[in-house]
Amino acid sequence: MKELFNKGIEGHLFTPLDVQFAYSIADDKSPILLMLAALLSAETMAGNVCLALSDVSANSLFAGRHPEIAAEFWHAMGNPDEDSIYQSVKDAKPISLAADNKITPLVLSGDYLYFQRMWQHEQCVAEYFSQTSMTHSDSDKVKAILNDLFPEIDSGNEIDSGNEIDWQKVAAAVAVTSKVSVISGGPGTGKTTTVARILAALIKLENKHEGHIRIELAAPTGKAAARLTQSLGEAMKFMPLTDDERKILPNQAKTLHRLLGAQPESQQFRYHRDNHLALDILIIDEASMVDLPMMGKLIEALPPEARLIFLGDKDQLASVEAGAVLGDICRFSNVGYSSERASQLTYLTGYSLTDFSANEGPIIRDSLCLLRKSYRFSAQSGIGQLSFAVNEGNAKHALKLLNEQLPDVHNYVQDTQEDYVQILLDASQFYQEYLLSVKAGNTAEDILNKFSEYRLLTALREGPYGVVGLNDKLEKLLHRQGLITRPFNKFNKHYAGRPIMINRNDSPLGLFNGDIGIILPDEEGALRAYFQFPDGIIRGIQPNRLPSHETAYVMTVHKSQGSEFAHTALVLPKIYSPVITRELVYTAMTRAKKELSLYCCPKILRRAIETPTKRRSGLALQLYTSYSTSQDY
Question: What is the pLDDT of residue 134?
Answer without folding.
Answer: 63
